[in-house]
């Protein structure tokens, strides 16, 4: 079952990713898809209520070289820097 997803930019210039109701790894996969479609440096706010997201989201962001800040229960602020793991040619 998937929850509502609002990937629209908010008035504050952040993109909200509402992954409530999704089970891991779906919140992380959704975060990746949206982050890579946005310009580098864009702030994303991920909301996820799956308990596994507590460890999966920070671990994924660290692995990708993205900045991740916990902003409350089930909420993270994520920024993909201009040069992150996804930007390095393979």
TrEMBL record:
It holds the Pfam family TusA. SUPFAM superfamilies: SirA-like. Coiled coil: none annotated. PROSITE patterns: UPF0033. Residues 17-41 form the UPF0033 domain. InterPro entries: TusA-like, TusA-like_sf. This is UPF0033 domain-containing protein. The lineage of its organism: Bacteria, Pseudomonadati, Pseudomonadota, Alphaproteobacteria, Sphingomonadales.
């Amino acid at each position: 079952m998937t929850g509502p997803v609002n990937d629209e930019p908010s008035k504050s210039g952040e993109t909200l990713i509402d992954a409530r109701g999704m089970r891991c790894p779906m919140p992380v996969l959704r975060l990746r898809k949206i982050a890579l479609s946005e310009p580098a440096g864009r702030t994303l706010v991920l909301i996820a209520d799956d308990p596994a997201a507590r460890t999966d989201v920070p671990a994924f962001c660290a692995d990708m070289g993205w900045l991740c800040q916990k902003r409350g229960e089930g909420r993270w602020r994520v920024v993909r820097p201009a040069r992150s793991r996804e930007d390095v040619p393979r």
